[in-house]
Amino acid sequence: MIEPKGVVHFSIPVSDLEVSRRFYTEILGLKFKFEAPAAGMVFLTAGEDHVILCKSEGKIQRSAAEMRRIHHAFKLEPDKYDDAKTFLKTNGVDIFEEEDRKSGVFVGRQFYIRDPDGTVIEFSVWDGTSVLK
Known about the structure:
Layout: E1 9-14, H1 17-27, E2 31-36, E3 41-46, E4 49-55, H2 66-69, E5 71-75, H3 81-90, E6 97-101, E7 108-114, E8 120-124
Parallel strand pairs: 1-4, 5-8
Antiparallel strand pairs: 2-3, 3-4, 6-7, 7-8
């Protein structure tokens, strides 16, 4: 059996690398690390985790069910949660859903936005203590 130690990176398909690079760095606060234009990739970090924006050659399409269920989640410090929401709203980013889960998987406060291509991004204050069921 393979026993992964963790996740090295995850990739997000985008239609325009420069638009998405600005959104993810200037609005969402990820840190730019490296660009590989020939490969159509922009490398970013969120804390110690790596995210790659990958140029999609085809139109990015999602079914109605995928519009919310398929998403990427980033951690926020609890004391930064409300400031993050205010900053996003001030910059014209719609928070289309918010919840405060008291049970289940990944309990705590979280809100959801969409990137320029419609990919759903979650911001969560999950502290790692809820148990996966």
